[in-house]
Amino acid sequence: MPLNKEIQPGDNDELTRERLQATFDTQQMAAALWGSDLARKRRELAKKVDKLTVLHDSKDMSFMTREEKLSENARKVVQMFAHVADIVEDPSDDAEMFHLSSNAIGHEGHPFGVHFVMFIPALKAQADDEQREKWLMPALGLQLIGTYAQTELGHGTNLRALETMATFDKATDEFVIHTPTVTALKWWPGSLGKSSNHAVVSANLIIDGKSYGHHNFMVQIRDENTHKPLKGITVGDIGPKMAYNASDNGFLGFDHHRIPRRNMLMRHAKVDKNGVYTKPPHAKIGYSAMVHVRSVMIGHQGMFLGSASTIAIRYSLVRRQGEIKEGSGEVKILDYQTQQHRLFPQLARAYVFMFAGKEVRELYQKVLSDMEKGETTLLADLHALTSGLKSVVTHLCVAGMEQCRMACGGHGYSRASGIPEIWGVAVGGCTYEGENMVMLLQLARYLMKAVKETKKGKSLGRLVDYLLLPQDRHSLIGRVPQGEYGPHLAAFEHIARRQIFKVADELTKLQDKGMSKEIAWQKKAVELQRAARLHTRFYLAACFHRKVQSVVDGRIREALADLYHLHLNYELLDMVNYALEDAYLKADQVDFIREDMYRLLETIRPNAISLVDAFEFSDRELRSVLGRRDGHVYENLYKWAKESELNRADVLPYFDKYLKPMMLAARQRSNI
Ligand SMILES: CCCCCCCCCCCCCCC/C=C/C(=O)SCCNC(=O)CCNC(=O)[C@H](O)C(C)(C)COP(=O)(O)OP(=O)(O)OC[C@H]1O[C@@H](n2cnc3c(N)ncnc32)[C@H](O)[C@@H]1OP(=O)(O)O
Ligand SMILES: Cc1cc2nc3c(=O)[nH]c(=O)nc-3n(C[C@H](O)[C@H](O)[C@H](O)COP(=O)(O)OP(=O)(O)OC[C@H]3O[C@@H](n4cnc5c(N)ncnc54)[C@H](O)[C@@H]3O)c2cc1C
Question: Transmembrane region positions (predicted)?
């Protein structure tokens, strides 16, 4: 059977020649990336969206005001739901729905931005059966629009300091929701400002003057017909952001607003009509919606980096600039080693982030079904894993996307490239769902506990089993036959384990000297977050290894293995100081890693376009002139620029108003 190489009539010849070099079938690679069923569904879905003009952008969003963006995406999201049954096979499949939303709406946000990713997951995990009937069904049926209102103007990270109050009034069987200070205003919730009419609100539960910490409450905030804020509620938009401006992130305040007692989400924690409080089976079970989003973010961030890599690699095969050998003509910029070194490691990261995203979702589903039965043993493991992955992946994604942008030269800076918007959305991920540094420290707490268990000869969980293994003194990289990468993965393991034990010992020493646990933690916080990063980067490398091992088709496995080996080399060099500190690696081994990395850049080069084609992002989804599948970049850049609102007239009013009078006056002065 001939290999599928994604060649279509009308394609730029340069790209066709590139695609013909592929050593593998792109559809099979897509199946390895997404799973064969989802890859097929994605392909079919994109074709259907292409035919449904009501789902198409009415013009490029770059040329719209915020209000136009909100209105445009509200229009499309409504059309999307109207046609959903004709487009997707299973509307309850988040992955299929995310793909539909990417194609039809893009990533700038829409009125249901938080409804599906937090509001519904919070209801699924925290509402009891009766409450699910009352809100989950209408929420799924689009009878209401919900958001998740937790962060306040004064506090986002430190949830214990949230100020919004939910005081139980036994006499009326109600909670009184109140915003006592300006810093207690809810601030940031997506789609809150102008779109939502319901919110899951985090507030301190107060019964008979005693605080039980924050819990989640269902609050209707707007009238379902007039959409006006209900009495006692102040709500609005917080203003423009770096990106994601089709989302109306909002503020929300309550003035002694009353809700029925049964509006507290009561699957786990409960308050009865006499004000008797029942504790949940796990203190942090109410944080499940956050864990859900952290788990989805990993794969999504991989897709963002995959999109940026696709744009930059395709463009690098169309763009010619300079000669390598004088007189032999200008080369494609992807033929420069520096360009390959800039882009291929980002491509490899995108692949592994998507693989890790899949693994972590599987663990999340398991924990969710355990929680349904009141079983919470794996919650701490999941929290630790998602906290680390969320932080490392978002950080590396935005660093990688910035490389992709710069690799496109001047045109990368134009919004026509599509990179600025996805970069702006992705970089938000470093902050939302837990600021990265804070989440790394959460993982570090877990790792320090794991060390204690290890010292007793036990393992805290599967993810930290490797702490039980003895440390090797020297790496075998370059000392085993060429093509064996076991020692590379062992090096990730070594540096993670060493840093974890090192910081644990340092903490112990400080405490032995009489320092409190908390102050010792502060003194070692930078080292602790390093340990968390190294642990996570080891997890990612090991995940890549598991994926390559699981692939049956030889051609796919070989192409994936090249990316995996490049990943091992590149990331090790990025962290090499840790391996040099204890002379685990010698200088000649570092040179070996570098040389092997350069070799791999050359090996990957002929497959580059097919490795990005395998993501199967449609042009509609990429929204990039530079990343067009057919490679016809220049004529379309010109067409795009002509759409600029500044080109609506040859002379704009500001010229007559300001510049012309100034120049006339200057001329008159010079004539005097
Ligand atoms: C949106 C989805 C996909 C994105 C891509 C799609 C494309 C579109 C892109 C744009 C979408 C934009 C949507 C954005 C939506 C964003 C929403 C939000 O941001 S919602 C708000 C999120 N807020 C946070 O994440 C707050 C961060 N802070 C915390 O989580 C906590 O305060 C803390 C964990 C830092 C500390 O909690 P606290 O209760 O104060 O901790 P204690 O010190 O009391 O206890 C520590 C103890 O608890 C354990 N713990 C903490 N959390 C959990 C948990 N979730 N599960 C299990 N255990 C937990 C922790 O490990 C400690 O355990 P210990 O044994 O004591 O060590
Ligand atoms: C695009 C976007 C969408 C959002 N959507 C929502 C939403 O739908 N619902 C919602 O409720 N919220 C939402 N948020 C809010 C978001 O969850 C918070 O901004 C986030 O959790 C960080 O909290 P913060 O803003 O208080 O940061 P801060 O905690 O003030 O962070 C500032 C700095 O302080 C440091 N810091 C803070 N605490 C510690 C500590 N203990 N140890 C060491 N360093 C520390 C941080 O590392 C950081 O460098 C959104 C935010 C964004 C950007």
Answer: none
